[in-house]
Amino acid sequence: MKKTGALLLMMLALIPAAAAAQEVYTLPEIREQAAKGWHETYTDKYGRTRQVDIDIEVFGEETAPVVKAGWADPQEYDFGGSSPFTEIKETRIKRNGVSTYLYDGVVGMKVDLDQKYTEDYGNDLTLREVYDFLQELLREQGVDQEYLWEQPYTFSILYSAHKDTGEVLVPALYSVMLWQTEFGLPILTHVGDSFKSGTDTPVIIPKVRFSMSNRHLYLGGGTAFDVKEILAEDIPLCSVDKVIEGARKMIEDGYIKKVYDLRFGYVIYSDPDEAWGKWRTAYDLDTWYLAPSWVMYCRILEDPKVDQLPEYPRLWEVTINAQTGEMMDYFDTSLYKGGDARYKGFISWDDVK
């Protein structure tokens, strides 16, 4: 096991004791447990009913590796191209058009690569054809990464039509953001996105973003990680029931208004040995840790006493530890007045024997 710094050594000394008190499972066993979904009704302390009625998604194959990652080469790329958004905006203004989303930033939607989603809106491309062109652009940039093609992080379709006649003025465009994958696990988020106050730790998530109407109208780019070291080929995991239990308190305390998804994949943690500073950016840091984790996608109330979300509510991505079931503390301000996003090690199979 890789040990980084005195703080990490102290934290690791405490982890095996916690693991010994619970049953642990392999990734295939977790997948079997998740098949029943999460279907539970809760009553919060204000007497409100909160119903969770979702499927649970478990990515990956047979093992759950822990890895150290760093920037790929290139770490950031831009495809250039001519923006389809500009054409939609200009045409809308000039020709009395209105822009309409058929899908608007839908998170984690399972897509059909051969469906012509935009055929009725002046664009007969399938997503497979869009992805084929995107892969050409990635190769030209020297990017050699895998992505979760069949399930974009966000999926949008936008077109412009005459506001009176409905005539399509600008053909529809596909717009996607894609999770990078390693060992079959998508890199879902950075743990810093779990905290209410945010974190002064630079937060980065490697994704590719791409929008396309045709081979002449497209826009995109992204960032990428490379695996530098495998710290563990596989780790023991706590039960799905324990993960759900880890989220229960925040629901019953009235903060979580709605749960949308629960997914198992990679979450990024920051290197505890990096020299952090107020003016550093994610591009100044060299090392990241990818830990198999759960991410709960939910809406959180600013004031739990007031059952009202803002006009444009944030979709929170709250990390739950896949080995202990502990949810990251939404209120944590322990590090630079923000949440502690540092990597703290893992429980090995030897620790639980």
Strand arrangement across the biggest beta sheet: 4-11-10-8-9-12-13
The number of helical segments is 5
Strand content: 35-45%
Form type:
globular
Secondary structural class: alpha+beta
Distance between the termini: 16 Å
| N-to-C order of helices and strands | HHEEEEHEHEEEEEEHEEE
| Arithmetic mean pLDDT | 88
Low-confidence stretches: 1-20
Rg is: 22 Å
The beta-strand count equals: 14
What report would you give on this structure?
Helix content is 18%, strand content 37%. The chain is of the alpha+beta class and 353 residues long. The strands form 2 sheets. Strands 4-11-10-8-9-12-13 form a 7-stranded mixed β-barrel. A two-stranded antiparallel ribbon has the order 1-2. A hairpin with a 5-residue loop joins strand 1 and strand 2 (49-54).
Summed up:
This protein has 353 residues and is α+β, with helices and mostly antiparallel strands. The chain has helices at residues 5-20, 27-34, 84-94, 127-140, 240-252; strands spanning 38-43, 49-54, 56-58, 66-78, 97-107, 146-147, 154-162, 168-182, 185-190, 207-214, 217-232, 256-270, 288-300, 316-321.
List keywords for this structure.
353 residues; alpha+beta; seven-stranded mixed β-barrel; 5 helices; disordered N terminus
Write the layout of secondary structure elements.
Blueprint: H1 5-20, H2 27-34, E1 38-43, E2 49-54, E3 56-58, E4 66-78, H3 84-94, E5 97-107, H4 127-140, E6 146-147, E7 154-162, E8 168-182, E9 185-190, E10 207-214, E11 217-232, H5 240-252, E12 256-270, E13 288-300, E14 316-321
Parallel strand pairs: 3-12, 9-12
Antiparallel strand pairs: 1-2, 4-11, 4-13, 5-7, 6-8, 7-8, 8-9, 8-10, 10-11, 12-13, 13-14
